[in-house]
């Protein structure tokens, strides 16, 4: 965690004349990247963003391999205005399915309303949200987010008012802001909340101040709260029951599920297509070697190696494995060779049994696509590709 660049007074701090301050990248992006890095570092799976607005943060998070549940809540959720489509899997999601499932749901609702579907998350983010809450909602916010939703982590970002004198305008940064806190105000509030709900909190920020004005701190102040694993102290409010009674208040405005290798249909299709690709490459090399030969003999294939994207060690392993061969018009690929191809190997976790069973199942269920007038034959020890 970065050190907060706090100083107690601005007496020794030269605040440069007011001019447009340019952040590179823009400070809103820096806030999103901050969350992205946190998610990566902790391998977080279930994340909710309160006040998701145009869903840019959720859209960035959907690319993380570890993320499996993304939820957005916004009082003014209008997903069709910005095209909820940016959160959908798209064609690419079907061509190369994710390793793990991913479900994304957007709700219309308030961050100060309790809804049991928000309980049990790894992380709840509130990026530039709290300053939009009036005093009544701000008072309810900790009990709902920390007491009831009770996630493993909470990230709250809010403007640092000490930075404001550097901006040309002397008003709040957004007309909808109800307040903008200095660092002491934010940290006092955050420490009180953390203590009450048994979290620890650390402070950092994004948007560096210009040279000479370091004492004002970051443009955006950020509190990262982490739930304490130890039992709550007597003075703290007890954690909610394991099984929170169902309470659905939010309105679902958008939901989507991604194809993934955890779903047997996409797993089998991917395995088939990776196998077909590997066999296709073996076959073309084999045919090149056959060009000079016209006989029906079994032809051993020494050079039938996929060259691209393989390490020396993988190439050597392929060379040592049983070789593809042909008998008449049939081209045989021993499964022992097919399974060495890294993508195939990764999919079946090195299990020959799994590879054989799934390819055979595919044949029965006609799920392996017949491509380029070639069809599959599976025997006990080999998969063969036969011209039809
Ligand atoms: N997090 C976004 C948007 C910040 S603007 C970003 O960083 O870009 C604040 C957002 O909070 C707006 O989209 C607004 O509609 C939403 N909002 C305001 N009050 C809210 C409340 N009580 N509950 C949920 N969302 C709220």
TrEMBL record:
It catalyses: small RNA 3'-end nucleotide + S-adenosyl-L-methionine = small RNA 3'-end 2'-O-methylnucleotide + S-adenosyl-L-homocysteine + H(+). It comes from the Eukaryota. Its EC number is 2.1.1.386. Keywords: Acetylation, Magnesium, Metal-binding, Methyltransferase, RNA-binding, RNA-mediated gene silencing, S-adenosyl-L-methionine, Transferase. One of its GO terms (molecular function) is metal ion binding. One of its GO terms (biological process) is RNA methylation. SUPFAM superfamilies: S-adenosyl-L-methionine-dependent methyltransferases. It is an enzyme of class 2 (transferase). GO terms for cellular component: cytoplasm; nucleus. Its cofactor is Mg(2+). Methyltransferase that adds a 2'-O-methyl group at the 3'-end of piRNAs, a class of 24 to 30 nucleotide RNAs that are generated by a Dicer-independent mechanism and are primarily derived from transposons and other repeated sequence elements. This probably protects the 3'-end of piRNAs from uridylation activity and subsequent degradation. Stabilization of piRNAs is essential for gametogenesis. Belongs to the methyltransferase superfamily. HEN1 family. This is Small RNA 2'-O-methyltransferase.
């Amino acid at each position: 965690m970065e050190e907060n660049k706090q100083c107690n007074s601005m007496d020794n701090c030269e605040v440069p004349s007011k001019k447009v301050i340019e952040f590179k990248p823009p400070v809103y992006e820096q806030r999103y990247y901050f969350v992205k890095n946190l998610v990566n570092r902790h391998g977080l799976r279930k994340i909710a963003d309160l006040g998701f607005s145009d869903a840019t943060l959720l859209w960035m998070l959907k690319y993380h391999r570890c993320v499996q549940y993304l939820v957005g809540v916004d009082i003014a959720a209008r997903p069709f205005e910005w095209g909820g489509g940016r959160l959908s899997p798209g064609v690419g999601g079907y061509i190369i399915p994710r390793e793990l499932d991913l479900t994304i749901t957007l709700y219309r609702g308030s961050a100060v309303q309790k809804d049991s579907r928000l309980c049990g998350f790894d992380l709840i983010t509130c990026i530039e949200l709290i300053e939009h809450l009036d005093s009544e909602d701000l008072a309810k916010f900790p009990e709902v987010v920390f007491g009831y939703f009770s996630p493993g982590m909470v990230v709250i970002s809010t403007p640092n008012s000490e930075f404001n004198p550097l901006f040309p305008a002397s008003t709040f940064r957004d007309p909808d802001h109800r307040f903008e806190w200095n660092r002491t105000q934010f940290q006092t509030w955050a420490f009180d909340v953390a203590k009450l709900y048994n979290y620890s909190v650390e402070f950092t920020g994004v948007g560096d101040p210009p040279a000479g004005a370091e004492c004002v701190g970051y443009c955006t102040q950020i509190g990262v709260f982490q739930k304490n694993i130890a039992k709550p102290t007597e003075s703290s409010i007890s954690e909610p029951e394991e099984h929170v009674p169902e309470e659905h208040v939010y309105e679902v405005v958008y939901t989507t599920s991604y194809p993934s290798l955890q779903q047997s249909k996409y797993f089998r299709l991917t395995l088939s297509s990776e196998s077909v690709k590997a066999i296709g490459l073996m076959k073309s090399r084999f045919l090149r070697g056959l060009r000079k030969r016209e006989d029906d003999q079994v032809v051993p294939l020494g050079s039938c190696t996929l060259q691209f994207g393989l390490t020396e060690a993988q190439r050597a392993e392929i060379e040592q494995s049983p070789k593809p061969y042909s008998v008449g018009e049939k081209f045989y690929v021993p499964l022992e060779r097919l399974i060495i191809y890294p993508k195939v190997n990764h999919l079946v976790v090195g299990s020959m049994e799994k590879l054989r069973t799934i390819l055979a199942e595919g044949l029965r269920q006609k799920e392996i696509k017949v491509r380029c007038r070639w069809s599959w034959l599976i025997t006990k020890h080999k998969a063969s590709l036969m011209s039809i």
